[in-house]
């Protein structure tokens, strides 16, 4: 059995895996940064973010930077456990 066979169903999407991979190596990333790096539309990113948030894999922080709203994300402890489970040895 390969490690891909152990992939958590939440990460079968390359977008969700990409989001989680970026958040694992960055404390916080904002919405536009994730959208740009993964070359996603607003709707596509929003749907995947919502899915990860429902699983408690990411934390959302909304705040103002100057007069603009800024939404940022970071991986939770649950998210780290979920993602690390995808790297089990065969």
> Terminal Cα separation, in Å?
5 Å
- Name the CATH architecture: Orthogonal Bundle
- What's the name of the CATH homologous superfamily? Winged helix-like DNA-binding domain superfamily/Winged helix DNA-binding domain
Strand arrangement within the widest β-sheet reads 1-3-2
Q: Which overall shape is indicated by the principal axes computed on the Cα atoms? A: globular
Helix content: 40-55%
> The biggest beta sheet, please?
3 strands, antiparallel
Rg over C-alpha atoms, rounded to the nearest angstrom: 14 Å
Sketch the topology as an H/E string, one letter per element: HEHHEEH
CATH class division: Mainly Alpha
Number of domain units: 1
Question: Which regions contain 5 or more consecutive residues with pLDDT less than 50?
Answer: none
Mean of all residue-level pLDDT scores: 86
* Count of DSSP strands: 3
Percent range for β-strand residues: 15-25%
Task: Kindly report the CATH topology.
Answer: Arc Repressor Mutant, subunit A
The number of helical elements comes to 4
Molecular structure report:
This protein has 4 helices and 3 strands; from the N terminus they run H-E-H-H-E-E-H. By secondary structure, the chain is of the alpha+beta class. The protein has one domain: Winged helix-like DNA-binding domain superfamily/Winged helix DNA-binding domain (Arc Repressor Mutant, subunit A). A 3-stranded antiparallel sheet has the order 1-3-2. The termini are close together. The model has no long low-confidence stretch (mean pLDDT 86).
């Amino acid at each position: 059995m390969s490690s891909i066979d152990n992939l958590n169903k939440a990460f079968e999407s390359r977008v969700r895996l990409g989001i989680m991979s970026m958040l694992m190596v960055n404390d916080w990333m904002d919405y536009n940064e994730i959208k740009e790096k993964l070359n996603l539309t607003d709707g596509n990113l929003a749907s995947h973010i919502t899915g990860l948030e429902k699983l408690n894999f990411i934390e959302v922080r909304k705040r103002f930077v100057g007069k603009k709203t800024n939404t940022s994300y970071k991986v939770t402890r649950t998210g780290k456990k979920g993602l690390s489970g995808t790297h089990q040895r065969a």
